[in-house]
Amino acid sequence: MISIRSATAMIKKLLVLLLAVAFLLSATPAQASPNEARKVILDVDPGADDAMAILLALNSPELDVRALTVVAGNVVVGQGVENALKMVSLAGRCDIPVARGAEKPLEQKLTTAEFFHGKNGLGNADLPAAACKVDARPAADLIVELVNRYPREITLVPVGPLTNIALALKKDPSIATKVKKVVLMGGSIAGGNATAVAEANIYNDPEAALAVFEAGWPLTMVGLNVTERTLFTRAELGQLAKEKGQQARFATAVLTFLVDLAEKLGGEGTPMHDPLAVGAVIDRTLIVIRDMRVDIETRGEYTRGETVASRHNCSDRRELRGDHYAVVGIETVQPNVHVAVESDGARFNQLFLARLRGK
Length: 359
Ligand code: BDR
Ligand code: CA
Prior knowledge:
It is a single chain. The protein has one domain: Inosine-uridine Nucleoside N-ribohydrolase, Chain A (Alpha-Beta Complex). It is built from 14 helices and 13 strands. The protein has helices at 4-25, 48-58, 77-90, 114-117, 139-149, 163-171, 175-178, 200-203, 206-213, 224-227, 234-241, 246-264, 273-282, 345-356; strands at residues 38-44, 63-70, 98-100, 154-158, 181-185, 219-222, 231-232, 270-271, 287-296, 307-310, 314-321, 324-332, 337-343. The protein is globular and about 75 Å long. It binds beta-D-ribofuranose (BDR) and calcium ion. Calcium ion binds at residues 45, 47, 50, 74, 159-160, 274. The site of beta-D-ribofuranose has 15 residues, from helix 2, helix 8 and helix 13.
């Protein structure tokens, strides 16, 4: 006869196994048929590279963009909403709701980055006034509504500070089991850009990042360790500049600003941070992933906002022996993130150029 204790232990083991299988399955390439576009919500802080990510998404038949939700980050949220509305107007997509989100991070003052994105956040590129209008629903409400309307169908693609996503989780924690997956641009396993170790999107709201990384949903992190190697160069800019359509002309202006700035700072091209996260949703084979335990540092004097990744998913187990501790073995830790560790930058840039051809 099985005792209650051993039955409970068996059920626990089964649950752990099921969770592990669900996590592994979430890493397998999506098999959507060509006419079955993936529903996505882009959470953006536009932002010059955000604008490129939006254009890539809107011109990719693999994606069915259900909303742009805007968060304060690169620019204040009002400017971000204006920019997002200009983007959907440029693409002739007023059918896509644009919702205004958080004005500031959960627990700290907002830091904007016009220094890197231009005064208007769009590399100072001009666009006509938006024809599309802002949605009445707050961003977090819209995320919750759409995820509940399409259970296990929505891919969230946050490419700014994670405030809106954390607010949506707080409002309805059940969305953690209802999204298909989250593919975010943020973090790094190889040093930061906002500080020595923290990437800007995580640094700009570490408490929100903590909630998102601990939510238990299938999460892919497209961080600086891959985006800084996915450079859009002057040669590729030359190819884009040959295109005469309005969207391509706008993209050329924005990327000229970014490539000029990158070169001034000693780089050989501009990192395609946010566009690469969208690219990874369009074509999973553009990145290579490894599963790791990633924790968010919220307290360190020098390390606040760091994504602390366990490369081997284990740590020492220690026991007190008199006046000191001794290592007595190794403890494994459960991975919680699919970490992008390599990207095919050349192929990604060709995808980006192809999607803007004739646009
Ligand atoms: C991230 O920070 C922002 O400046 C960019 O838009 C990107 O999302 C890169 O660290
Ligand atoms: Ca961004």
